[in-house]
Structure formats: structure tokens, C-alpha cells
Specification:
By secondary structure, the protein is an alpha/beta fold. The chain has one domain: 3-Layer(aba) Sandwich (Rossmann fold), CATH 3.40.50.720. The protein is built from 6 helices and 7 strands. A 7-stranded parallel sheet has the order 3-2-1-4-5-6-7, with helices on both faces. Helix 1 packs across helix 6, helix 2 packs parallel to helix 3 and helix 3 packs parallel to helix 4. The structure holds NADP nicotinamide-adenine-dinucleotide phosphate (NAP). The site of NADP nicotinamide-adenine-dinucleotide phosphate has 29 residues, from helix 1, strand 2 and helix 3.
């Protein structure tokens, strides 16, 4: 399959890219600063240019997304707006604009995270965005068939503990390879409207 992978150069994206390549898929990687295609998916016009450049694909997978982490009493309206744009609306736009560029039985795989279900201090904006993504995917799944859509919801990755571990006291981490396996399941499988929880 030809897979468009947004965030292919990151911790998660590199693992997903490796897993897909190992299974014989072609991966077209997207990032803001590096990749086969340069695009910032928070910009709807950049998303349109990305799809115009790439042509038809069999799967679209997102392994990107940025959120503001601050205690609730310090989170501003702008922080919530930036997080919703950076993590949720960007992915909604990738799906909304991607439908005509995806093969008729192709799939979208989005990324949320553990915070939807298990809150942490300073995670309210990220949790809000993650919840939006999961609700969107469930809703889109009843209108997209025969195209499919699923979400991968991992807890913190073992590989990210040096950076984010202090935010997740007492919470188990998973190897990023497990999240990559869930992307393979979404892309090669037959399910839709699922949230694959790795926590
Ligand atoms: N790390 C964890 O423990 C963990 C756990 C659960 C969920 N997640 C979620 O998984 C996703 C990826 O996390 P990560 O830790 O792998 O992040 P990361 O290492 O920072 O990688 C993110 C990748 O996405 C690209 N990117 C970021 N924003 C983009 C945009 N607007 N448009 C296009 N490309 C963009 C980045 O490249 P450029 O900078 O070149 O754009 C980078 O290659 C995030 O949504 C995160 O919330 C992460």
C-alpha cells in the first residue's frame, strides 16, 4: 500500500514508518521541517497542497500533534485553541480534505493518547483535544464506509520517558513499537470506528 504518514520523523512516526516498510508498504513521510513532503497540517491550505502533491493513497496515518501542558489555572483560552488546532483540528482537516484522495476502501489512522481516559496534572488541554479526536473518529466512521477510520491511543512511550516521564508518575509506559503495531492493525485490518488503547 501507499501510505501517507504525517509526522514520519518523530518518535512515534519513525516506529510506524519502520513497521510499515518492514511489511512492504511504500511510505510517503510528511513533516514541517523534513520528509518527502513538507507541510504543516495545522494550516488547511498546506493540507490541500500536501494532497495535491502526493496524489491517491491507500492509507493516511497521523503520528504528529502538539499540545500545551500547563496547570489548569495557567491555561489560557489561546492555549486551548492552540492545542485544539495542533492536535485535533489538524487531524480533522487531514481526514476532511483526504477523503477524495484516499482509495475507496482506504483508511485513516489518527492519534489521541492516554489522557482522554487517565488525566494528569497539566494535561487538561491535551485531554480535551484527545477526546475530540476520538469522538470525531467514531462519528466519521458511520459516514466514511467503505473507507475506514481508527484512532491509536497510547500511554507515554518508554522512549519518551526522559522528556515526559515526570508528567506521568506511577503510570506504566509502553514501547513505541506497540503503538506502531496498532497502526499496522488499523491500516491492514478491516475494523472502523475503533480506538486502539495501549494503556
Ligand atoms: N511521546 C509519547 O509518549 C506519546 C504518547 C501518547 C501519544 N503521543 C502522541 O503521538 C504524537 C507524536 O508524538 P511524538 O512523541 O512522536 O512527537 P515527536 O517526536 O515530536 O514527533 C512529531 C513529528 O511530527 C511532525 N509534526 C509535528 N507537528 C506537525 C505539523 N503541524 N505538521 C506536520 N508535521 C508535524 C514533526 O516534525 P517537524 O517538527 O519537522 O514538523 C515530527 O516528525 C503526538 O500527537 C503525541 O501527542 C505521544
Amino acid at each position: 500500500m501507499k501510505v501517507l504518514l504525517i509526522g514520519a520523523g518523530g518518535t512515534l512516526g519513525s516506529a510506524v514508518r519502520g513497521a510499515l516498510l518492514a511489511r512492504g508498504h511504500e511510505v510517503v513521510g510528511v513533516g514541517r521541517s523534513s520528509g518527502d513532503v513538507i507541510a504543516d497540517v495545522t494550516d488547511p491550505e498546506a493540507v490541500a497542497r500536501m494532497y495535491a502533491q502526493v496524489g491517491e493513497v491507500d492509507a493516511v496515518a497521523v503520528a504528529a500533534g502538539e499540545a500545551v501542558f500547563k496547570p489548569l489555572d495557567q491555561l489560557t483560552a489561546q492555549d486551548f485553541a492552540a492545542t485544539l488546532r495542533g492536535k485535533a483540528l489538524s487531524q480533522v482537516d487531514v481526514v476532511r480534505q483526504g477523503v477524495p484522495h484516499l482509495t475507496s476502501t482506504g483508511s485513516f489512522t489518527l492519534i489521541s493518547g492516554v489522557l482522554t481516559d487517565q488525566p494528569i496534572v497539566a494535561g487538561a488541554a491535551a485531554a480535551t483535544a484527545n477526546g475530540a479526536i476520538e469522538a470525531f473518529a467514531r462519528a466519521a466512521a458511520i459516514e466514511l464506509p467503505p473507507q475506514r477510520i481508527n484512532v491509536v491511543s497510547p500511554t507515554v512511550f518508554e522512549e519518551s520517558l526522559p522528556s515526559y516521564g515526570s508528567f506521568f508518575p506511577g503510570m506504566e509506559a509502553v514501547p513505541v513499537a506497540r503503538a506502531a503495531t496498532a497502526y499496522v492493525r488499523s491500516i491492514e485490518g478491516a475494523q472502523t470506528g475503533q480506538v486502539y488503547r495501549l494503556h
